[in-house]
Queue: 2 jobs
Job 1
Amino acid sequence: MIDSAPVLIIFGITGDLSKRKLLPAIYHLLSQDLLPKDVKIIGTSRREISLDELLSNVELCVLEEDNVCDPAGIAKLRAAMEVFKLDPVSDDNYTALSQHLDSLEAHERIFYMSLPPVAYAPIIERLSKHGLNDSRSRILLEKPFGYDENSAQELIDLVSEHYHEDQIYRIDHYLAKETAQNLLTFRLHNPIFTALWNSDHIERVHIEAAEKLGIENRADFYDKTGALRDLIQSHLMQLLALTLMDIPSHLKSHEIHLSKQYFLEQLMPADPKQALRAQYDGYRDAVGNPASPTETYALVHLKHSAERWQGVDIILETGKALPEKHTRIIVEFKAHAGQPANRLVFQVQPDEGISLDLFVKKPGFDNTMQKTMLDLTYETSFGDDKHIDAYERVIMDAMRADHALFASATEVMATWRVLQPILDAWENNSDGLTFYPMGAVPEATGNV
Ligand code: BG6
């Protein structure tokens, strides 16, 4: 629980992210009385939009996800929420916003940029000009944090000109997924694996995020972004760091970030020859760009320079329009004397769980070996325990000023640096781009 009641000011309240993720997450938190009673949510919008319209969108999204929508939860959201008409480039509007915030007497102000980063500059500059960057203020930023190494640095510089790093929360919602959070706890509290967590015993770490959906209605964004920037630079790099970084002695935000940064900074720059890209059939029509070189599938092999990880093959792989949606981290141990390899799998989503392949004798007269599995599923182990959505966690942690599950500037820069050679090699050309039918696995997978 959070003691004081902050104000959450959302820029981009009419956008897809607010509609599909943020407002439903706030609704869930309010329904369970997890936010302070007097919390205020202000949605800023350039165009006239009524609270009723916003709330009916939330109801639809919640119904679609949960099959039920609690009227009491919607009533709580209605009581907490208001719409504030604001033109992002009108100074007068920021003066009005500032006066309005003063009138609410809320101590903490949290500005949530639910917008593409190109829209940040005019807003951040004006917030700062109107004093809305003082010690009571925090700012939450959505990815992508830049487009490449240079633009990421520019974005970081722009924000840090107006806000201190302690006030900045860069959202990577994969860090807020329950199984991702379990990585450090699992590693810290299961010493049988600690001794094996190095290149003497681990052959390969493969992190895959497959999506069934295509690019949906994000043609413009996606065609400029592609799979490498959209998921590998952010979500998969963060999962990788949690999987292999040194475990800090305390799982406290500062220590976690230091260790993660140290790990990411020692990843070697990626070799473009060790990367694959592919595009699903029909993508070019969907984005209206007949020669688009944008990859909807990417696979990269990485190497780490620390002695602990030397020789370990690190594979990050993601794609859209694949046969199914799943995110998993596969840690493959070294096989001995022609025996099969044990694999430890963290199933991030769906059906969260952790499993270990074991090879045992099949019951019977013959001595036949069979692969089985030690299998922990969250469903059987934690039953009805409430499943917390990643965005609920993001909002909660921002309100209680806990930075642990957000990305730091140095982490962001380290990941761009690693991938920049591939970005350079893929820039404005389709060399090596292959194609795959929607709903199929690209053929070249794993052949690099
Ligand atoms: C977002 C990407 O960060 O993550 C999307 O921009 C992707 O392209 C989404 O679909 C996946 O998130 P989740 O939580 O559905 O796996």
Note: Residues 173, 211, 230 surround 6-O-phosphono-beta-D-glucopyranose (CB under 6 Å).
Job 2
Amino acid sequence: MTRVFSGIQPSGDLHLGNLLGALVNWERMQHEHESVFCVVDLHALTLPKDPATLRRTTLQLSQLLIAVGIDPERCVLFVQSQVPEHAQLAWLMECTVSFGELSRMTAFKDKSSRNEFISGALFTYPALQAADILLYDTDFVPVGDDQRQHVEITRDIAERFNSRYGTTFVVPAHVIPPAGARVMDLQNPDRKMSKSEVSPAGTVNVLEDFASIEKKFKRAVTDSDGEVRYDVDAKAGVSNLLSILAAATGGDPAALAGGYTQYGPLKSDTAAAVIELLRPIQARFAELEADPAETSRLLRLGADKAREVASVTLRRAQENIGLLAY
Ligand code: ATP
Ligand code: LTN
């Protein structure tokens, strides 16, 4: 069976785009591959975080992943910092990647231009990501196109390490996850729904209350020609509603358009479908939130399973690079 690895940062609230674009795929993959999913709290630290906030968002994101159906008994779900092998292998990765390679990362250029404090770790971030991936002999890394460069650098690091020190790592491949919905901002449908852009009226959070979700869909920006048609370029707002409705109900956006002659019913049906999708997720989340000990148990289970694999790979890398065994 092939092994997949993916990670998500505990920064900001999880929104409908994260759910329909990424997590629905994770849920499916756990049935088809040996899946390892990681809440990358160490990566979140590359930009300064309030400690209480980091603790809360790490726990909350872990509970949300479980609530979405990512099953800690079926796959490996864990928090990065609870598996110390990640930080340990990251050092060996830093020693294997060049300054020039790291300097070419567009994610670094982008984030360093938008933030005041630029940590050293923001620059070496891809070395930690390479460690995440390589520790598990990963075959495939399903992540969005924005992460392609980070998977490429991981491949380069693995190949260099293997050629310098002997075969140690599986060289992973990037896969664009099977067409997840791309969810656009409800107020600005030319821009993707995002947690770092401040657009409260355009963003629907997975934990949002239902009355507020209805209101946001009712006020979603459409256009003035009044025709319900799936055409992403000419009718971004209406098409976004149709894709959300399709993703939430398992239908096809263009086919769904035929069932509507007005925007009002499309908006209320989309809101209703999203609410039905979120209802069981919120209910399961509430149960987990009420019982943090159970979440800790599940995360420990995940970390233990992860360490079984990670410790073997780390030891192999340490030996091959010339560190003394103990
Ligand atoms: P930021 O806005 O800070 O980039 P984000 O909300 O885009 O954050 P990420 O943490 O970058 O979220 O991404 C987590 C996952 O969610 C990724 O796999 C990404 O492709 C997916 N994702 C994020 N936003 C959307 C969206 N609007 N539609 C579909 N998928 C999305
Ligand atoms: N950099 C990624 C998160 C991430 C990741 C990983 C994804 C950290 N380690 C390993 C895939 C594999 C992001 O910002 N989305």
Note: The chain has a mean pLDDT of 95.
